[in-house]
Design brief:
alpha/beta, 19 helices, globular
C-alpha cells in the first residue's frame, strides 16, 4: 500500500481547501489497493471533479486520473513504464529463424509447435497454459531455438517469484534441455527474481516462470533491470490467483489486444496419465458452474467433508502425514512428504493456525520433538539466502539448543536462530502454495468463524489449490463455500491495458 495513510491525505486535502467529497474516493482507493487493485473506477461526476482538482492543486503529485479511474501517482507511473517497456519490446520486427520444433520436442503437440516457432522469433513472448500442458518444456525449446540467434553462447537467466518455484523451474528446465542435444544450456540454474534483479542487465534471454504471481511493483523493477535488447519470455497460468500485492500483470497482458501476437496458449494436457479425475475436477472448476463441480466431486469419488467436523478433519490430516511421520521414526532422515494441507483462512476450524497446532501436537505425541518439522519463512532474509515463502525442514530435535534447518535451495543447513519470522508449514495458505506442487493436497475452504470476515472465496483461489496437486485432492468445505467460490471470479481494476493500447 502507498506509505501515506488516509489520515495524512485528508489533512493535506483540508489544508489545500479541496472538496470534502473527495475523501470518500481516497478511502475507497486505499481499500482497493489492499485488495490488489491499482485503480478505482469513478463516476463521471467524480472523475470530472478529480480532474479539475488535480489541474489546480499540488495534490497531483499524489494522485492521477486515467480513463475515469483514480490511481496513486506511483501506480500510475509504474503501469505507464511497464506498458511502454512491453510495447517497445513488442515493436521489434520478427526475427528470421528456421526452426523445426519437432527436432527440439519430437512429441510436441500443435499448440506447442506454434509457441516454439512463434515465440522464438519475438523479443517478447508470453506462454500460458494449465497444469500438464508442458509450459516449461516448451519454454526450454524456445530458449534452445533462440540459441541459434547468437554467435556465442547466450547468457540465460531463469527466474521465479519464490524459491520453491525456482527449484522446480531448474529441475524441469534441465530435464527438458537434456533431451535437446544441440541446446548447450546445461547448468543454468533458476533463482528468485529478487536475487537476480541486479544482474539481469547482462542477460541475453530472461525466462520468468509463475508470472501470475508477479506484482506490478516487482515487474516494474524487473523490466527496468533487463536490457532493451534481451529476449523476454513470460510463463504462467492466468487462471490462477494474481499476486498478493497490487497488480494483475499476466492476466492483463494475455487479455490485451495490444500484445495478442506475442501470446501463445498451450491447450493440450500431457501430465494426466492415471490422474484424469484430478484434471477433470480442475476443468470443472474453471467452467464456472457450481453444480457441475459438486456433481463431479461425487462422481469422481473425491473425499469431501461438508459438515466441518473437527474429528474428520483431524483424522484426514493425520492420515495424510502418517507416512511422513513413520519415515521420520524409521529412517531418521527427513524427506519431503507426499501430502500438504492448503487452507484459505488463518483462524477457526480448518484455519492455518489450528491445523498447524493440531499436527505439531501429534509430532510431540510421537516423540519427534521438533525433528522433521516443516517451517515456512515469512520474511525475506537475503543475507542468508532465504526469502518469504521458502520452506525448510528441521533436521535435529529440539533437544539441541539451536537445531539445524535444511532448505532445498541452500547446500548447507542454517541454524534455527538465524531465521527471523517462521511458522509451521503443516498447513500453508493457498496463496503461499503458488509455485509449488505436491502429490496429494488437502484443501480447506471452511466457513469463516468471524461474522464480519472480509474473506471471499473465488474461482481463482480454488483453482490454484486444485492445481497444486499432481495426483489427488481432498476437500474440507461446506457446499455453500464451494458454490460461492466457483461463482465468483476476481477482477482487479488496473489501467495497464489502457496504457498498452495508447503507449
Amino acid at each position: 500500500m502507498h506509505p501515506m495513510t488516509s489520515a495524512d491525505v485528508f489533512k493535506l486535502l483540508e489544508s489545500e481547501g479541496l472538496p470534502q467529497n473527495l475523501q470518500a474516493s481516497v478511502s475507497q482507493l486505499f481499500e482497493a489497493i489492499q485488495q490488489g487493485h491499482t485503480a478505482l473506477q469513478l463516476s463521471n461526476e467524480d472523475a470530472d471533479l478529480w480532474a479539475k482538482t488535480l489541474s489546480e492543486s499540488e495534490i497531483a503529485t499524489l494522485f492521477a486520473i486515467n480513463h475515469g479511474a483514480l490511481q496513486i501517482r506511483r501506480h500510475f507511473a509504474q503501469e505507464l513504464r511497464v506498458a511502454r517497456a512491453l510495447k517497445n519490446r513488442s515493436s521489434h520486427p520478427p526475427l528470421t529463424i528456421s526452426i523445426d520444433p519437432r527436432q527440439l520436442m519430437p512429441h510436441a503437440d500443435a499448440s506447442q509447435q506454434r509457441a516454439i516457432v512463434g515465440a522464438a522469433r519475438q523479443h517478447l513472448a508470453i506462454v500460458t497454459g494449465g497444469p500438464g500442458t508442458g509450459k516449461t518444456t516448451t519454454a526450454a525449446a524456445i530458449v534452445a531455438a533462440k540459441r541459434t540467434l547468437f554467435q556465442r553462447k547466450p547468457r540465460v537467466s531463469l527466474v521465479a517469484p519464490t524459491g520453491k518455484a525456482a527449484v522446480r523451474l531448474t529441475e524441469s528446465f534441465q530435464a527438458a534441455i537434456s533431451k535437446m542435444p544441440t541446446a548447450d544450456l546445461e547448468g543454468v540454474v533458476a533463482t528468485t527474481i529478487h536475487r537476480q534483479l541486479n544482474d539481469l542487465n547482462s542477460a541475453d534471454i530472461v525466462l520468468i516462470d509463475e508470472a501470475s504471481m508477479v506484482s506490478l511493483d516487482l515487474f516494474d523493477q524487473l523490466l527496468k533491470s533487463v536490457s532493451q535488447d534481451a529476449h523476454l519470455i513470460l510463463m504462467g497460468d492466468p487462471n490462477q490467483l494474481a499476486s498478493v500485492e497490487a497488480g494483475s500483470i499476466l492476466k492483463v497482458i494475455t487479455e490485451s489486444s495490444a500484445l495478442s501476437n506475442h501470446c501463445f496458449q498451450l491447450t493440450q494436457r500431457h501430465r494426466i496419465e492415471g490422474h484424469k479425475a484430478l484434471a477433470e475436477l480442475q476443468d470443472l472448476c474453471l467452467s464456472g458452474e457450481p453444480q457441475r463441480f459438486i456433481q463431479g466431486i461425487k462422481d469422481l469419488n473425491i473425499f469431501w467433508e461438508t459438515n466441518q467436523s473437527l474429528d474428520r478433519l483431524q483424522s484426514a490430516l493425520l492420515d495424510g502425514y502418517l507416512q511422513y511421520f513413520e519415515d521420520l521414526r524409521r529412517k531418521g532422515v527427513p524427506t519431503t512428504p507426499d501430502f500438504q494441507c492448503l487452507t484459505a483462512i488463518s483462524e477457526g476450524v480448518g484455519g492455518r493456525r489450528m491445523i498447524n497446532h493440531l499436527v505439531q501436537a501429534e509430532t510431540q505425541r510421537l516423540g519427534l520433538n521438533g525433528f522433521g518439522e516443516r517451517l515456512l519463512v515469512t520474511e525475506n532474509q537475503p543475507g542468508i539466502g532465504v526469502f518469504n515463502g521458502d520452506v525448510g525442514v528441521v533436521i535435529d530435535s529440539y533437544d539441541f539448543a539451536n537445531p539445524r534447518v535444511q532448505f532445498d535451495n541452500i547446500e548447507q543447513p542454517l541454524r534455527k536462530n538465524q531465521l527471523g519470522a517462521v511458522e509451521s508449514a503443516w498447513a500453508i495458505s493457498i496463496h503461499r502454495s503458488q509455485g509449488s506442487e505436491y502429490p496429494s493436497v488437502f484443501i480447506c475452504l471452511p466457513e469463516p468463524t468471524v461474522s464480519r470476515s472480509r474473506f471471499k472465496p473465488s474461482r481463482e483461489l480454488l483453482y490454484t489449490a486444485l492445481t497444486r496437486a499432481k495426483e489427488s485432492v481432498q476437500l474440507f468445505a461446506t457446499e455453500s463455500m464451494i458454490v460461492e467460490a466457483i461463482s465468483r471470479t476476481t477482477h482487479r481494476v488496473t489501467c495497464l491495458d489502457h496504457f498498452l493500447k495508447t503507449s
